[in-house]
Amino acid sequence: xxxxxxxxxxxxQAAVEQAMFLFWQQGYESTSLSQLKASLGGGISAxxxxxxxxxKEALFREAAQCYLDTxxxxxxxxxxxxxxxxxxxxxxxRQSARMQSDPGHxxxxxxxxxxxxxxxxxxxAVAAPLTASRARTRAGFVHCVERGMASGELSAQTDGVALxxxxxxxxxxxxxxxxxGVGYAVFDPAITQILxxxxxxxxxx
Length: 205
Prior knowledge:
Elements: H1 12-26, H2 33-39, H3 46-53, H4 56-69, H5 85-100, H6 128-150, H7 160-179, H8 184-200
Protein name: TetR family transcriptional regulator
Pfam family, one: TetR_N
Organism: Janthinobacterium svalbardensis
């Protein structure tokens, strides 16, 4: 026998995107089920919400994946071996800083701020995709530094892990400052400054 219920009157993908913006702005624990229901498709009932998404946790995972498939792609260039390693790092930093300070969506980075989205051990697994994404970005910076050393651009005495951490830490800091309202006009010259750390490790011509 067919189950009767409130017909879906919302676009499911649009609802996931709306949830993504809400989680991005407020974090996992601070976003209530009632807020999610109110924002999705003009508001849906609890039974309809659970029928569509299963749970708040499941919706967060979908929202996180939506972010990873779109906004988080700004750092994918770290793995593009067609780019010179320094250029790949610069592109990642500038693209990410520009995205994070764009007024068209919540400020900051959902991936970087994900460490605060589900801080308790109970919810740590919920944020696992964001944790994995942060690890991949760190590995991407290491990859670029190692390419620079392998090509002879960077000195063999370069501490590759430390140099990569400089760029990764800078990017994490951008997320906090963007959330505080710092704009790209500040980040742009700051990126120029931070890239001088790479240049200081170059093999002299």
